[in-house]
Amino acid sequence: MANTKRTLFLKRRLRVRNKIKKVTANVGRPRLSVHRSNKNISVQLIDDTNGVTIASASSQEKALGVVGKNNIEAATKVGAAIAERAKKAGVEVAYFDRGGFLFHGKVKALADAAREGGLKL
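RE: above sequence
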């Protein structure tokens, strides 16, 4: 298989996700999974032991006021929203699952906003 951008992304995503899933299964700590598209950014707080989503937030939500924007400001608002929803669900500590995305720009802004909101990553 050729090393195209997509295959390299998928390799990175599997490598990151498999390492995190091994750790979360033993500890029981949920993972904060990020997905970034060209138009939006979304995040889910996932409990891998039960296979359920505890909380989620997305830039598509009208309540956040960033619909249609995929920038650092939108990522910051989504990060703050997931931190607030995680607190309501009783989660204070999670593993950050960046998927295959590099940790800079929007993904870093989301993680920093979640940390400022009180979520320990």
